[in-house]
TrEMBL record, chain A:
UniProt keyword Cell membrane, yes or no: no
GO MF entries: FAD binding; oxidoreductase activity
Ribonucleoprotein as UniProt keyword: no
Organism (species): Paractinoplanes atraurantiacus
Domain FAD-binding PCMH-type residues, every copy: 1-213
InterPro entries per the UniProt record, alphabetical: CO_DH_flav_C, CO_DH_flav_C_dom_sf, Diverse_Substr_Oxidored, FAD-bd_PCMH, FAD-bd_PCMH-like_sf, FAD-bd_PCMH_sub1, FAD-bd_PCMH_sub2, Mopterin_DH_FAD-bd
Lineage top rank: taxon: Bacteria
Protein name: Xanthine dehydrogenase YagS FAD-binding subunit
Keywords noted in UniProt: Oxidoreductase
From TrEMBL, chain B:
UniProt protein name: Xanthine dehydrogenase YagT iron-sulfur-binding subunit
2Fe-2S ferredoxin-type domain sequence ranges: 1-75
Organism annotation: Paractinoplanes atraurantiacus
PROSITE patterns assigned: 2FE2S_FER_1, 2FE2S_FER_2
Pfam families, A to Z: Fer2, Fer2_2
Amino acid sequence: MKTFTYRTATDTAGGLEPGAAFLAGGTNLVDLMKLGVATPDVLVDVTRLGLDEVTSLEGGGLRIGAGVRNSDLAAHPAVRRDFPVLSQGLLAGASGQLRNMATTGGNLLQRTRCRYFMDATKPCNKHAPGTGCPARQGDHRNLAILGGSEHCIATHPSDMAVALVALDAVVNTSQRSLPVSDLYRLPGDDPSRDTILDHGELITSVDLPALAMPSTYRKVRDRASYAFAVSSIAAAAKVADGRVTDVRLAFGAVAPKPWRALIAEEALRGKPATRESFLAAADAELAAAEPLKDNAFKIPLVRNLVASVLEGLTS
Amino acid sequence: MILVVNGVEHELDLDPRTTLLDALREHIGLTGAKKGCDHGQCGACTVLLDGRRVNSCLILAVTQQGTPITTIEGIDHPVQRGFLEHDGFQCGYCTPGQICSAVGMLDEVAQGWPSAVTDGGGDDLLSDAEVRERMSGNLCRCGAYANMVPAIKEAAAQ
């Protein structure tokens, strides 16, 4: 690991010198430092800033401090009661040990687990801009079918973020507030940046607006537990007189960012709550998919997930 | 820096790159916590930080000054007897991590924390499926899982 200096942050104003990085739970950053993929000169520990509270917002929403650990958030009574999609998404991710360490802010900012990104000896436009992307010709079974570019098809690994995107969550930083769906950017011709945050911009909390519908999270992975998603879905839906009156859908592990399925949502509003409607909506969203040789299976997988999860929510 | 391990203060002069696992093993001499993958994927390095189970290989020691740290050497818990009685191991390399993880996990269950297989409230949070899910952060190359599940359940009943 490259040498660095360590200090603790004393306020939430953000701001970092060039080459410095914030450290929270460390479950991803310390690993990337061991791998030589992340090489900060300075680590600024933000875990002693008191950002570890979950508080109620007017109207039934919640404010989640950026330092709240994933395990505490998943077990929080108000989250389990009012935002089951978030509790379930968190519990579907990582292990008990890692959830005890990982924070809300850090979970949002974790990097892709694309094997080329994680290997400092391999070309990768994300960790070494301009060196190329071996994934298109190489191992891309678990990489993106939506939102990728010729320069990068990495997938965002978070489960929590998929739930937050479906919940219309708002991220508060040291500089501004923005919808979590606007936090992430697509790779285009600059895959090195995952988010629109400035260097030194510190996430301080995440706001959840009240959700007046049942919600759920489902994750498909290669083993029963403790694995990243092959595909996942966060969903919420409301039905009246047999028709969909409101719906939220977001997909995980299919794109470089948590993928809000706005096309599918639009296709569903006012439609009969039937498997045919759900499949048609999924097809509308997935029409833009650009699969490669080994990840085309994600199209029928996501299609079936949409139908199965919405059937469960609306029956 | 000062690390408080199993109730004992250790004054250390460490490079900030030192993980908690390396501090415990190489500098304090507590070699119970094991280095398996060194990337947070196997759970062999599990210790308790302020009573909560964590992967010590992904924690920088410098971040835990003053936090109560419990390693397998500081644990006296029915889970240990359970592993002996149910033969919850073969080679034993993952065992310290398994036991620390189980102790932390049972405390999580006592607090009513849900898991990915928990359906609503009021269910048995220590069914076989629950134990397997909650312990999924600890791998056992020998595959002694089948005996760990009853070992942990029996310890929980005590």
